[in-house]
Each structure stands twice: as structure tokens, then as C-alpha cells.
What does this fold into?
Amino acid sequence: MTEVHIEVSGLTMAYDDFIIQQNLNFKIHKGDIFIVMGGNGCGKSTLLRHLLGLKKPLAGDIYYQQQNLWQVSAKKRNAIMRANGVMYQSGALWSSLTLAENIALPLEEYTDLSADEIKGLAYLKLALVGLVGFEEYYPAEISGGMKKRAGLARALSLDPDILFFDEPSAGLDPVSAKLLDDLIISIQASLGTTIVVVTHDLPSLFAIGTDAIFLDSLSKTLIAQGAPNDLLHDCPHPVVQQFLSRGQS
Amino acid sequence: MKKCVLKLSIAEQHVGTAIIGGDWVIGNRVPMFAVLQRQLQAQSCRKLSLQGVGLGRWDSRLVLFLYDLETYCTAQNIDLDMTAMPVAAQGLLKQASAFPVRESGQKTPVSISWLARLGEHSLSVIRQTKSVATFVGNICLSIMRLLRGKACFRQRDLWLVMQDCGPRALPIVTLISLLVGLILAFVGAVQLKIFGAQIYVANLVGLGMVREMGAMMTAIIMAGRTGAAFASQLGSMQVNEEIDALKTLGISALDFLVLPRLLALVLMLPLLCLYADFIGIIGGLLVAVTMLDISFMEYVVQTQSALALHDLWAGLFKSSVFGVLVAVSGCMQGMQCGRSSSSVGDAATSAVVAGIVSIVVADAILTVIYQLVGV
It folds into this structure.
């Protein structure tokens, strides 16, 4: 078994008094493409915000390589968080910056590279996601699919150990969604990055997922864990079956 | 961190071997590609193979180097052998060159002469004037529809906007007009005391507030507060495609969104102005009673004698004109906002600037007209 990258134990998430999910326990191994799935409103995106350290859990712990995210110093937590790359649902590109500047910003903040090197790296990251020639465009000037890819390029800018994706295929046509899936797989294969994907897009999660958890909004906890294809065949839970077979069973 | 190593050795017949070693990571001193490029040019190398002897950790920094090298070698027709490089790095390189360069995507910076820039600028001024005229014209049509009872908007919206730009603005209007009244009284008192005519502070404050400052100050407050809010509300609706959604349903965005805001401001601003006049006079009264030894009744009687009803109407008419200007500039900037979040900020800024400038210009014009008409 490969090394555990993130461990979640007894995690309970809530907005004020309203509990979203409780007692979540799971491990994400290094190099996994880990899928967080579940119906609308089950708390997938909330879990993502917790894993990213944007929200403090009501109870339970999150460990990054044995370091408890909420028991280390704020400085240390920042360092842990900086090793995460995130691709947000709508790209979340800064609209007043060009694509190249969007990718260069984290490099300017956290490295002492020269302006030329930063520019070179920004262009390389854009080339990786197929946006050669769009470096000087503003986010408002490109399509939704391109914004997502540019968001991915920005997530890659600091060579993260873990990449988080929030609904990567939402709003994409099937061909673009497939391209993005291929991109995720090839980035994982080339860099060995651990990848966490929040999605409910079936073709995509079967194509890329090596491990997965299923969050249920009724019982407010995780009800299944395993590779998506195994879950489809072996998981006895009717909710999971219904989800994975698109309501057919 | 191990030092980065890059050694180029050229054997006979222009065949080169480059040894890459050390930690090629961001944060380490990595050799410049330009150095290698110069060496390759000098030796007119035709074939190059890379050896990863002692290559430690690596990240995008190495990939960038290889990417530059690969691009250069392809351009110069140099046979490049990278099989000794880490497989993952090769995979990334393949990924980076997998997508074709879209010629249509290239943005080429063009230098523009000053004459062309001047022309551009003049054209954009004409365009802007046209768009202002169109917007104002559309609003007139929309008001005509309202008068015929055909404009469609929700009454609730009108009440909400009225509440927002009326009662909720009271605290700040109170503060500002009280202070303006105080300031007018102070400025007047210093000069009038020389002639022993302190009592005329009441005239100065009364006329100043009622004819000018009441209307002007409330309008400027509303331009900063409500005009900017209108621009950013409508602007973010534009970004979220909410305005498109209205249009596709055949609902006029002007009737539905702009009209209630315009009406609310035109109705509320004179009321706020009236309130500001009153508070400003109280400000003057405070100064007069506490510092100029004028009694409360004296001040009130003097103010009454100084003010005629037409002064009040003159001020209130001004403030309803200002209401139109603030609402139109706020709504126009919002409706013409671009599709990005930064353009919402720009819209709010221009709404405030346009609002204040138009208020001051309109005030000057109205004052001249009042003088000519003798109001």
C-alpha cells in the first residue's frame, strides 16, 4: 500500500448548528485520483473547503502526511496549504489579469525567480493545458472550457503535491470534458500528483477515479468507499447503486 | 539542495552530449538556457543527446528548460535525444506540445501612432455620446410606457429601492447637512461680525442650505451611496446573465430594473433635500445660539423673513433634477457593464464620477437659469 497523503478522521462538518456530514473517516493515498461523489447538497464542496483548510471542522481531524491541519501553527498550515493546487468550478481566474499574469502571480509571491523565468513557466503551464497563444488574453475574452483549463494551469503553477478539482466537467461539452479527464490522468501519471476530484459526472468519475467515497445526504455520512467501478458492481447500498447507474436500478 | 550541473561536450561531427545533474527545482540556481543555446550555436551542433547523470529532484523548472531546448532544436533542425531524461518529464513535454498552436488565438501587440490614438479617442467620445443619448431616449420611452400604464415592474421593487435610498440614507444625510450648516454659519459669522451683522448668519445659512447646499449635498451623498449601488447591482446582474434572462422573456430590462430605481430616487431625493435643509438650519442655529449670542427666536424669525416659498421650490426642483441624473448615470453604467467582475468595479466608479460631475454642471446651469428668470 502506498503512503497515506491525507487522512480524515471523525470529521463533522456544519454551518452553525446545521450539520452537513458527520463522522467521516477515510484516507487518500499518494498518487490516487480520489473521487468525492454524492448527490446535490450532500456536502461535497463543503468537504473540499474543509480539506483545503478554508473552513474549520466542527469536530474531527484532518491530517496531511501525519500533520494535523488544525493543530500546527498558522505558518505551518499556510505552508501545507500552499502545496495544494485548486481548480475552482468556474475557474476563479482574476479578471483584471491576463492568463499569463494569473499563473505568474503565485510564482511572483512565493519564488525568487526572474521575470523571464516566471514568464517562461507561465507559458509552459498554459502549453500543458493547451492554451498556447492565449497568454495575453483576459479571462473575459475566452470560453468557459478555456477558463477551466486556465484555472488548471494556475493550480499547477507552484507544482503542487495535491490537486483539488471542484466539479471539473460541469458546464463542459462531452469532448472538452473528455479532454480535461485525459489531462487529469496525464498530469497524475507524469507528476505523480495526488488528485482529489469532487464530481457527480458519471463518465468522468468512472474514467479517472482510482478510489472514491460516496457521501449521503440522508444519513449525513459516507456510505461507501472504493474504486468507482468496483462500487458499481459490488456495493450493495441502493443509494449508491441508483447514483452510479443513473437511477436505472 | 544539490547544485545544478549542465555540461556540454561536443565530439567530432557536431555531435554533442549534455550532462544534466543536481536538483533542478524552483528555488535552486538553474543554468540559463541562453548559455547552452550560445554554446550549441558556436559549435554548430547537429545532434544532441541528454544524459541525466546524478539528476536529483526536479520540477517544472527542468521541464521549462527542456521545453525551451526542444523548441530551439526543432527550429534549428537539431536531432535531440531525451530518452535518458525522467519519463515523467518527457510525458509533460509531450503534453505541452500536444495541442496545436491556434493562430486565431495569437494576440499581436501593435504600435499605434498618436494621430490614430487621437482618432480612436474622438470616435469613442462620439460612441459614448451616442450611447448616452440612446439610453436617455430609451428611458423616455420607458417613462411614456409607465404613463400609459404599460410598463412592467414589480411594485415591491419600487418600495424596496425607495426604502433603501430614502429612510436608510437619513443618518448620513443628517450628519453631513448638520455639519454643512455649522460650517456655513462659522464662515459667515467671521465675516459678518466685522460689520456687527451677526444676525444675517440666519439669512446666509437659510438661503445657502435651501437654495444650494441642501440639494447639492444630498445629491452628492446619493451619488456615492445609491448611484454606485445601482451600478454594481445592475453590473453584477449583467455578469450573471440575469439581464439577458429578462430580455429573452421579452421583459424590458429598462422598465423592470431602471424605472423603479429612477422613480424611487426622483421621489426620495426632494424629501431628503427638505430634511437636509431643516437639519442644516438647525446646524446654523446651534452656532448662532452658542457662539454669536443670538437668541433662538431671533434666529427663527430672521430665517423666516429671509426665506420665501420660491426659494424652497427652487431647491426642491434642483434636487429632483439631481435625482434623475444620479439614477441615470448609475443605471446606465450598470446596464452597459462588461462581463467580468473588474468591470463591475469600473461601472461603480464611473457611476459616481459621472453622477457628481453632472450634478455640479446641472447645478451651475440651473443657478444661471434661476438668475435669468428671477426666481
Observations:
- Chain B has two domains: 5-98, 128-373.
- Chain B touches chain A through 32 residues (CB under 8 Å).
- The two ends of chain B are 84 Å apart (CA to CA).
- The beta strands of chain B are 5-11, 15-24, 47-51, 55-58, 79-81.
